[in-house]
């Protein structure tokens, strides 16, 4: 009986697993697979572009502050002009010409409306220092073309009067300066082959 029990016990020990044998590690394969995946992922990932080093610009020099120079000024009184120009404005018949004839010294009057000689006659002795010249003696406004042509002639005549006055006057009176202005315009138009009332594109011709 004991012999049979011992035989069964031996058979049981042979069939029972050895407890001291080391167990197999099952986790090693998954770790290697994970590592392989990580290496593959890192290969597929692109590295971010490297930033180029910025060139350092040289610092601009700040503008130097220049201290203002000390200026010397002349604070003396203004000197009078060599020539004095007086404009008398007023409506017709208000005494503009008579007022001009009252100036001290010798007066040469260039009359453009042919009325100054009558005023000189009325004033008598008070206008004995006045010489009257008919400045529009050669001006003819019958036609526009004739007006321009005689305007040029009148301009040359006035310049001749200034050069050929018998005595140097203290004052020159232009009686009726608005007529002088339009006469000079007609002379300018005649020189530039323009019509009497034509528009002007080139404004520089007014400088003549």
Task: Name the descriptors.
7% strand, mainly alpha, 6 helices, elongated, 38% helix, three-stranded parallel beta sheet, 208 residues
Quick overview of this protein structure:
This protein is mainly alpha-helical and 208 residues long. The protein contains 6 helices and 3 strands. It has a domain of 112 residues.
Measured by DSSP, the beta-strand proportion falls in 5-15%
Order of helices and strands: HHHEHEHEH
**Radius of gyration based on Cα positions:** 59 Å
* End-to-end separation: 160 Å
Helical percentage: 25-40%
Summing up helix and strand content along with how strands pair, one would put the structural category as: mainly alpha
Give the biggest sheet. Answer: 3 strands, parallel
Q: State the helix count.
A: 6
Mean pLDDT across all amino acids? 81
Coarse shape: elongated
Description of the structure:
The chain contains 6 helices and 3 strands, in the order αααβαβαβα. The longest helix is centred in the last third of the chain and has 20 residues. The chain starts with a helix and ends in a 17-residue tail after the last helix.
């Amino acid at each position: 009986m004991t012999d049979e029990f011992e035989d069964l016990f031996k058979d049981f020990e042979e069939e029972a697993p050895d407890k001291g044998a080391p167990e197999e590690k099952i986790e090693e394969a998954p770790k290697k697979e994970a590592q392989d995946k990580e290496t593959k992922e890192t290969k597929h990932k692109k590295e971010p572009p490297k930033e180029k080093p910025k060139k350092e610009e040289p610092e601009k020099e700040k503008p130097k502050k220049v201290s203002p120079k000390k200026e010397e000024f002349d604070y003396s009184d203004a000197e009078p002009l060599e020539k004095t120009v007086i404009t008398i404005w007023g409506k017709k018949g208000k005494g503009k010409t008579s007022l001009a004839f009252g100036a001290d010294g010798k007066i040469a009057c260039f009359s453009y409306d042919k009325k100054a000689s009558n005023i000189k006659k009325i004033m008598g002795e008070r206008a004995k220092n006045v010489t009257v010249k008919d400045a529009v003696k050669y001006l003819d406004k019958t036609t526009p073309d004739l007006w321009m042509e005689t305007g040029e002639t009148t301009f040359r005549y006035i310049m001749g009067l200034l050069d050929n006055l018998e005595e140097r006057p203290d004052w020159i009176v232009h009686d009726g300066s608005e007529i002088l202005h339009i006469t000079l315009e007609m002379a300018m138009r005649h020189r530039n082959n323009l019509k009497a009332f034509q528009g002007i594109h080139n404004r520089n011709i007014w400088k003549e």
